[in-house]
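Researcher: We plan to redesign the surface later, but first we want a full-length starting point. Tokens attached.
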């Protein structure tokens, strides 16, 4: 089964009671980039963004930010 890394932006904003725009400001990451990550539209993950989010939200465990999920292969 295929695997995919997802960035849990929606969970983070809910947990920390902040908006996507506020996270963008705190982490100094473009709002558009966070929006694309949260909707799954961005294929590549910039690890400097992950580091900035972790620092902004005082997160020490990367599993709070990213997750590895099974993906059903639609091509079969």
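Model: Full-length starting sequence:
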């Amino acid at each position: 089964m295929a695997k995919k890394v997802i960035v849990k932006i929606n969970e983070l904003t809910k947990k920390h009671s902040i908006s996507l725009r506020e996270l963008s400001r705190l982490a100094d990451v473009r709002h558009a980039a966070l929006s694309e990550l949260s909707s799954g539209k961005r294929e590549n993950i910039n690890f400097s963004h992950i580091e900035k989010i972790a620092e902004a939200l005082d997160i020490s465990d990367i599993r709070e930010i990213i997750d590895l999920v099974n993906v059903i292969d639609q091509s079969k």
